[in-house]
Design a protein that fits this description.
Length: 214
């Protein structure tokens, strides 16, 4: 929300005041006020790039069942197909599952981590924050996938998708009403932990969970 607001201010040709800079700094947990406007511009470009790539790849799947103008896509957890279908009709679509999961993961680790990876390339050179976020994200996805596969009669692809989606998106490729209490408990835990600081998701954040268990 902050990023969108700042982008509108920049588009109007106005300067970013101190109050707005403070909001950006606090919402993204940044230590310095320097380079905030440049950072916002980088985030906007990054967001646009992900949206375009995700839309094109998703369109390749939806265009097989819908007309050109109806083959739209979003990453907000909405029931875009109607009749409470969510993405259940595409539970076996490897492309759509991986593309959607990829968008969710990238949105969940946060812009600062993505920019850090882009700049430093190697894991050893990343900031401590980036290392914690990436490590915890991988661990949660793997553990969640294994637990869901163990508790539910679903495929590994479905288990992986729900492990990713539960922490920040809300999409499902399997009716959640058919999940066992054990499976639902796993989803609740993943939802409670959520995404990472400076990301597009909620929850107590992966970094907080890391501190709690170490």
């Amino acid at each position: 929300v902050t990023c969108v607001g700042v982008s509108l201010i920049l588009a109007a040709g106005r300067k970013i005041d101190f109050h707005t800079r403070k909001l950006i700094k606090e919402s993204w947990n940044i230590d310095s006020y320097q380079g905030l406007v440049k950072l916002v511009k980088q985030v906007l470009k990054l967001t646009f790039a992900f949206e375009v790539v995700g839309a094109v790849l998703s369109f390749l799947v939806f265009s097989q069942d819908y007309s050109f103008w109806d083959a739209a896509f979003n990453n907000s957890g909405f029931d875009i197909l109607g009749n409470l279908q969510n993405l259940i009709p595409y539970s076996d679509s490897i492309l759509l599952n991986l593309v959607t999961a990829g968008l969710i993961i990238c949105g969940g680790i946060g812009f600062l981590v993505i920019l850090d990876i882009k700049k430093k390339k190697r894991f050893k050179k990343l900031t401590l924050h980036s290392k914690v976020v990436i490590t915890m994200s991988i661990v949660l996805i793997l553990v969640g996938t294994i637990l869901l596969k163990s508790t539910e009669n679903i495929t590994w692809l479905q288990a992986f998708f729900h492990s990713v989606s539960a922490r920040t998106a809300g999409f499902s490729t399997t009716p959640l009403g058919e999940f066992t209490n054990a499976g639902l408990f796993v989803l609740v835990i993943l939802m409670f932990i959520g995404a990472s600081p400076g990301s597009t998701g909620g929850g107590i954040k992966t970094s907080t969970f890391f501190v709690l268990i170490t």
